[in-house]
């Protein structure tokens, strides 16, 4: 293809870098293009998977592919004589951030905590660091940065389309299907209620307690799109990045002298409308703020700012944003006034999260509580007026400090500091010579997406992927064809990477997600692209050296073997055996199910789930003979205590132990059984001191054991906590009328 001139501004660079920039054409070797295509597909696939399942090991296969990509890149770069780019201060920050989490996870493994979650998330952070390294190497090339830009916008637009479908079609149909079932459940007789509960259980829908109340409330009142994420906030952060990058493309095109720019602008405005509409429907106020900050920052960073220049940029972004908002408010009803009026309440909730997290950080200042351990530790510090049992503190700095301690915090601060320096450097001009526009990477990306689609087709993956992946690939091809290098390498897009990164960071200051591989890798990609824009084009001449190649190749191969042995193999075997055991339980074959659970237990020694299910199975047996068999009951209790040894920070297993002992007491009336129940519920109270329902269970257990005075004291505290829940409107935390009556009767009973 003909050469295209690409003039772009660059920050201060070493003389050697400038010489390379002036002498190279940016013609990336074919092998590196192949690795670049694989890197891009691995990054984008993160946004089409369930990012919140990382602690369960369901995305470890993605980490293994990152390690394979690293190994291939090492070989190709050595063959192509392309030297390894020094990571610099950004690399140091990423190493501290990821390394801090890995060290904290290893501490959990050798001490106490959910060891399986910790080791799975440690591998995810190694995957993030590997992804950063590969993105850093590839983003030296104009061609890859252009493909990355097109890929992110295509993924964002296709997932935004899914979000609109969820809001207007999928979620209303689910509410129409299950809403009447919930209404009927409240008035049905026992036989009909059992039938309804069985139907709901088949769909993995909660059928009792606070979980049922919360699910029903969200089903009826919430239509926020979530894409492939579990929360609308996370989707909002992703769409915010895509929106800012799309604005940077539109502004670059607007400034050009291309005669076809008006036709192109129609396409980009359509993409902006799609992204902004779905972003608005998420009702993610933090994502809206992040978008506004990113757009304003892009304007302020532009060199030689004139008032007129600032105005048209703001008009382009704000007009589209507000016009779509007005359309939604006035016609489609996707938004309501509560989005704004409840903003103070949302801020109040976050202040509660942060206030409870700070003492946790103080108590675990150096290493944090470990990846995947936040929720169970947070409950110990949760304020009485708070409701949610959150899994992260909804603030990136507190999240990193609580989970990984001081080292990771220093890494995060290093990244932010040098991202700021990059933003300043990008304001200064430096000419770079022209670059060849080669379509090979486009073909590689489409080929990898096609192979992924075929794999998903034959492995029974999410049906939505079978539609969205071809759609995203087609959109990627269209965007890539309409994005010449003269636009893709413009100053507006170079600053767009920085602005999108700061917008995402602003969003994460009030929302969770920095610990999610998808969100963290998105941040790494933006930083790598911004740093690549600052440094200019790479020149593949010379050699990376046999020593560096051997070290990186050996490390990547060793890590691949290690993740297979400690992660992929035990998790996959255990999950297979657990599934087989569950199927046998449904068929009533309890002995065969126990055998499968034992196999799962042997396959994964770091997970407590198989032992937990064996304990439940043993208790089911002792229930069937009305507690006449003491051996079966002691087996169940012994297994649950083994679970506690593996996962002592969780309160849920002590809740089950307490329920078992008190149910046995109803049958035996033995005071020792009630005392065992009291001991279990007291351990629960020590781990979760602000749960009214669990306090009520402790009060009843103490009363059964004959400790009337202490039972009344706990009953009084339970009712006080319930009053706080009613005052704050935490409907999912209300005590049932039956439990309140029992507690009040306990308080009115005569003293000992």
What's the N-to-C terminus distance?
Answer: 94 Å
Give average pLDDT, whole number: 81
β-strand amount? under 5%
- Global morphology: globular
Q: How large is the count of helical segments?
A: 30
Care to count the β-strands?
0
Largest sheet: none
Element pattern in H and E:
HHHHHHHHHHHHHHHHHHHHHHHHHHHHHH
What's the helical proportion of residues? Answer: over 70%
Class per helix and strand makeup: mainly alpha
Given as residue ranges, the uncertain stretches (5+ residues, pLDDT < 50) are 1-26, 304-311, 429-434
As for the number of domains, it is: 2
Oligomer: single chain
Our Rg estimate from Cα atoms comes to: 28 Å
Overall description:
The structure is a single chain. By secondary structure, this protein is mostly helical. It folds into two domains: 463 residues, no CATH class; 180 residues, Tetratricopeptide repeat domain (Serine Threonine Protein Phosphatase 5, Tetratricopeptide repeat), CATH 1.25.40.10. 75% of the residues lie in helices and 0% in strands. It contains 30 helices and no strands. Helix 4 packs antiparallel against helix 16 and helix 23 packs antiparallel against helix 24. The longest helix is centred in the N-terminal third of the chain and has 46 residues.
Descriptors:
75% helix, single chain, 30 helices, mainly alpha, 752 residues, Serine Threonine Protein Phosphatase 5, Tetratricopeptide repeat, disordered N terminus
């Amino acid at each position: 293809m003909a050469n295209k001139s690409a003039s772009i501004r660059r920050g201060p660079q070493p003389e050697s870098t400038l010489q390379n920039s002036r002498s190279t054409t940016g013609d990336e070797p074919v092998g590196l293009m192949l690795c670049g295509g694989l890197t891009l597909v691995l990054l984008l696939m993160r946004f089409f998977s369930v990012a919140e399942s990382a602690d369960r090991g369901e995305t470890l296969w993605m980490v293994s592919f990152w390690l394979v990509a690293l190994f291939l890149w090492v070989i190709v770069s050595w063959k192509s004589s392309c030297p390894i780019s020094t990571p610099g201060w950004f690399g140091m920050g990423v190493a501290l951030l990821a390394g801090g989490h890995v060290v904290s996870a290893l501490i959990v493994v050798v001490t106490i905590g959910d060891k399986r979650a910790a080791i799975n998330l440690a591998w995810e952070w190694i995957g993030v660091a590997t992804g950063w390294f590969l993105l850093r190497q590839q983003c030296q090339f104009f061609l890859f940065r252009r493909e990355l830009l097109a890929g992110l916008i295509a993924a964002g637009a296709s997932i935004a389309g899914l979000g609109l479908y969820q809001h207007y079609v999928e979620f209303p149909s689910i509410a129409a299907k299950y809403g009447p079932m919930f209404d009927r459940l409240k008035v049905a007789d026992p036989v009909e209620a059992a039938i309804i509960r069985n139907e709901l259980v088949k769909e993995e829908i909660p059928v009792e307690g606070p979980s049922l109340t919360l699910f029903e409330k969200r089903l009826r009142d919430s239509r926020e799109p979530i894409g492939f994420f579990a929360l609308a906030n996370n989707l909002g952060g992703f769409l915010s990045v895509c929106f800012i990058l799309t604005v940077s493309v539109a502004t670059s095109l607007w400034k050009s002298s291309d005669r076809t720019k008006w036709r192109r602008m129609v396409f980009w405005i359509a993409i902006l409308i799609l992204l902004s509409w779905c972003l608005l429907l998420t009702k993610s106020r933090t994502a809206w703020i992040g978008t506004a900050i990113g757009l304003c920052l892009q304007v302020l960073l532009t060199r030689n700012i004139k008032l007129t220049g600032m105005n048209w940029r703001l008009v382009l972004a704000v007009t589209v944003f507000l016009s779509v908002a007005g359309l939604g408010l006035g016609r489609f009803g996707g938004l309501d006034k509560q989005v704004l009026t409840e903003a103070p309440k949302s801020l109040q909730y976050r202040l509660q999260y942060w206030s409870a997290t700070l003492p946790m950080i103080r108590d675990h200042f150096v290493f944090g509580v470990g990846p995947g351990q936040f929720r169970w530790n947070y409950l110990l510090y949760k304020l009485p007026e708070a409701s949610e049992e959150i899994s992260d503190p909804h603030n990136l700095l507190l999240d990193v400090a609580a989970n990984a301690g001081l080292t990771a915090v220093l890494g995060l601060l290093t990244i932010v500091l040098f991202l700021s320096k990059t933003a300043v450097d990008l304001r200064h001009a430096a000419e770079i010579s022209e670059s060849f526009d080669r379509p090979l990477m486009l073909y590689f990306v489409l080929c990898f997406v096609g192979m992924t689609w075929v794999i998903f087709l034959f492995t029974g993956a999410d049906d939505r992927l079978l539609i969205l992946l071809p759609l995203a690939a087609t959109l990627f091809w269209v965007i890539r064809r309409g994005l010449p290098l003269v636009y893709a390498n413009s100053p507006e897009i170079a600053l767009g990477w920085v602005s999108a990164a700061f917008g995402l960071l602003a969003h994460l200051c009030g929302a969770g997600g920095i610990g999610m591989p998808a969100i963290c890798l998105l941040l790494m990609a933006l930083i790598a692209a911004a740093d690549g824009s600052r440094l200019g084009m790479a020149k593949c001449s010379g050699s990376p050296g046999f020593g560096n190649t051997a070290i990186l190749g050996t490390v990547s191969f060793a890590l691949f073997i290690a993740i297979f042995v400690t992660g992929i193999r035990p998790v996959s075997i255990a999950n297979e055996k657990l599934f087989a055991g569950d199927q046998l339980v449904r068929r009533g074959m309890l002995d065969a199910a126990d055998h499968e659970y034992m196999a799962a237990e042997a396959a994964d020694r770091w997970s407590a789930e198989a032992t937990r299910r064996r304990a439940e199975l043993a208790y089911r047996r002792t229930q069937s003979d009305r507690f006449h068999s003491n051996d079966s009951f002691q087996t169940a209790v012994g297994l649950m205590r083994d679970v506690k040894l593996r996962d002592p920070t969780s309160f849920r297993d002590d809740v089950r132990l307490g329920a078992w002992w008190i149910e046995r007491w109803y049958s035996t009336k033995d005071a020792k059984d009630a005392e065992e129940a009291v001991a279990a519920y007291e351990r629960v109270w020590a781990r979760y001191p602000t749960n009214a329902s669990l306090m009520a269970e402790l009060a009843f257990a103490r009363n059964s054991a004959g400790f009337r005075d202490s039972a009344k004291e706990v009953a009084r505290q339970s009712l006080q906590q319930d009053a706080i829940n009613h005052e704050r409107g935490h409907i999912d935390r209300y005590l049932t009328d039956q439990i309140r009556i029992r507690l009040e009767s306990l308080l009115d009973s005569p003293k000992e």
